[in-house]
Amino acid sequence: MENLYQPIIDQSPYGCVLFSKRTSNSSQGFDYEVKYFNRAFLQFISLPEATIDQVNSLINSRVGFLFDMTSCLNKVSVSEKPLEIATFNDVQDIWCKLIFHPLDEKSIVVYITKSETSVSDPVQDSVLNSKILELLNQISNIAVQGINKKGEVVYWNKVSEQLYGYSDQEALGKSFIDLIIPESLKCKVISDIEGMLINSEPIPSEELVLHNKNGEPVAVYRNCFILNNFNGEPELYSMDIDLSELKLKNTMLNMLSVATSQSPATIVITDANGNIQYVNAKFCELTGYTVDEVIGQNPRILKSNETNPEVHKQLWITISSGEEWHGEFINRKKSGELYYESAVIAPILNDFGKITNFIAVKEDITGRIMAQRAIMEHSNNLAALLEISRSFSSTLDQEFLLPMIIQKGVELINVDGGAIYIKDGDFISLKSIWPEPNQPLPGFVEKTSISDHYFASQCIDTGEPVTISKHNFKQLSFQELAILDQLGVNVMLYIPLISANGVFGLLILSGDDENRTFTQSEIEICQSMAAQASLAIENARLYKESVNYTNQLKQHNVELENLNKEFFIAKEKAEQSDRLKTAFLQNMSHEIRTPMNGILGFSELLRTPGLSDQRKDSYVRYISESTNQLLNIVDDIIDISRLETGDLVLVQDEVDLAEILQKVYNQYRDKTNESVKLNTFFPEGEEVKFIGDNQRIEKVLQKLVCNAVKFTRDGEIVFGCKNRGDKWVLFVEDTGIGVDEEHKESIFQPFRQADMQVNREFGGNGLGLSIASRIVEQMGSEIILESEPGKGSVFYFALPEMPAVKDDSALKVNTDSLYTKEHYNVLIAEDDEINYQLIKDALTGSSYGERFDIFWARNGVEAVELFRSHGFIDLVLMDVKMPRMDGLEATKIIKEEDQAVPVIAQTAFALEGEQKNVLNAGCDDYIFKPINIGSLIEKVYGFLKLPYNDQQQN
């Protein structure tokens, strides 16, 4: 309570001392000690400065007027009545008046004033009381009301107006009871007032809930005292301190306390020295410590020494400077278990900016850290297994492979060594051990019965891993124990090696630490590695058998080697196929749908009644152009697939560069913008002919020119060839948008253009430059790009040195040898009626169409039967894929019966492998679907020795 009266005491012009009853018996003979005093009091004892302890010591001496003061204190405490006395101050040689006001059962205020006489004077008392009231009116936080014996208000200060809502004019002269006392307290308050004014019975200080002018409750702490008026009549004065804000703060503190205690985060509050003063329930739940065990302790009891000391140092520097610290700890529970916490630690400052406490709010992040570690471990395991798989795939020699498998297993789970046993009937044979032992092992280790080895037998029978440690060594044989002792092995892990036929061997990993255990994750990753090892061992075994078989049967050597190569190539193709699949689906959907839209749309429009011939011709032309566009896309897809998988085979035929340049020019001269000029360059007087892949060189030039046409809006495109020493260089130069340095490499990757904006603005599937680049690389050269954004680009590549073209005049066809028959019997083997009708109409509508007699077989069986039943067939058009019997099988049968009959295969597969299969089956030539009518007729006429002119077919 002394804090409430300090403002009054400090501002009083009189000497004031606040006494409080001691908590234990005093040896000085009285029960009070000084709690507070003002500077005016020091003047009465002639001291400029003094502490509370010094004043208490002086009063305890009980000399002079201080003796009278202490004596009266005991009287007031006994009588509990206000007391006024006059006494002589022998320190200053003056008379003083002492006024004793009991505040409550434990506190008394003593006022000291100068007095001209030792007799109490009512007038002087009144003046003194007025001074006290004037002083009380200046206190801004205490409401004071005065009440006479009639219960009427005689004093009402400004704070009372603010607290209760009545002005002094409204309150003075009114019944104090009616103004602010609730009905439930009226009897008690009336009794208290009468007792204090009439019988001098003090009213104890207490908390009350009164009400204001609006009837609203007002919580106050009340203390009452008596002052005499000018007539010497006692008046009761009530000092009320508003507790509303304090109550609200207490409520908020209670709510905060509940929230803190029930928080899912751990909360720790320490003093300024770091000693724990409070922890919540979550702290105890998480750490295992009770509240009593940690109060007064330093948070270092949680220290695990796993956190970097620099973290703790930085933490203390931060919070000591008044700043908030964020970070993570690795702490240790009472049980010794480690756990991870994310913490926010902040200092608590008093009104003077001094640190009084620290508060830490921490979250248990052990689960998150463990999950992150598990993810990291899983990622590392996958990376390790991938690297191991690559290592295993790098050799087919068991002599190198088996030690490699052991070594990779040792590195994978950090053990010391291992061995591999291969099952051989009822026996297992030691095939490899790593590292090599210092001393030779006994002979029985090389090959031993499975039944003699308990754990090996268990692993083979169940196909599950088996762990062995010191505690189950008793199940090992004497011989096994001797070997383990020689090798220094104390723990082992048996992993079965499994193929399609079951367990065929054991991978054993061992360590010398007898306390070593194998975790479930270690066992699982070893199983994954063993699966890869099993495949690698099986492949190596097959390879070894194939080599041995090759030595015995040399005629099958090439086939067996190809099988092994195809196995690895197929694996690589499968991996590449997965990578390309997503890119293919994402990039080709729009490119394929665009021409399909033209084909389907104009096909539908052709059905419109009353179309003019001109409109029909236009629609047919649009369908043809869209079909060619779609076919080009399909060709690009097939080309990039061949290049990615290495299936593209360069063909050696005659190449005429001038002819290629002219064909490309004719193809693109009408496809440029009106503002773009297309030109070719060829050295005058030169004839460039050599042996190479004519089709591929033409395709590369097509792709480069097509790229230039697409990205050039105005200016010029020039393409051609130049002689650079002993090599010819093909180039394409344009004034298009150009390519910045950042994208010069990426534009040659499949499905890539310089950026997505280019793709949206110019279209295209992003395969052209990639195809061109790969073809040139396969030729042994490289496409060079020189470009500047906004100014244009130059693509060029050097043709490798090629053999010159020999004089083939003797091989030219003698047109005089051509002859014609009246009728030609043509057998068309095709299971699709639409394709059959297309081929039939194409042949019968050609120049010599009236001479063709067409026979239709819907499958391979019918084709063979028609060939046999009919007397003579001049030519067979054979679909490769048909029901009942495919076209290749039917071709073999027909060729066995008549080797001379020409067979042209029709195939939808444009890969080199398919072409090879077609020719190996006996077909004389092939044509790809979708069928080019001109090419079909040219091939048919060629085999039937009919004169052919492509102009006649248009």
Automatic annotation (TrEMBL):
The keyword Phosphoprotein applies. GO terms for molecular function: phosphorelay sensor kinase activity. It comes from the Bacteria. The modification 4-aspartylphosphate is found at residue 879. Keywords: Coiled coil, Kinase, Phosphoprotein, Transferase. Residues 147-184, 252-298 form the PAS domain. Signal peptide: none annotated. It catalyses: ATP + protein L-histidine = ADP + protein N-phospho-L-histidine. Residues 825-944 form the Response regulatory domain. Its EC number is 2.7.13.3. It is an enzyme of class 2 (transferase). Gene3D superfamilies: 1.10.287.130, 3.30.450.40, 3.40.50.2300, Histidine kinase-like ATPase, C-terminal domain (3.30.565.10), PAS domain (3.30.450.20). Pfam families: GAF_2, HATPase_c, HisKA, PAS_3, PAS_9, Response_reg. PROSITE patterns: HIS_KIN, PAC, PAS, RESPONSE_REGULATORY. Residues 323-377 form the PAC domain. Residues 546-573 form a coiled coil. Residues 587-803 form the Histidine kinase domain. The keyword Metal-binding does not apply. This is histidine kinase. It comes from Alkalitalea saponilacus.
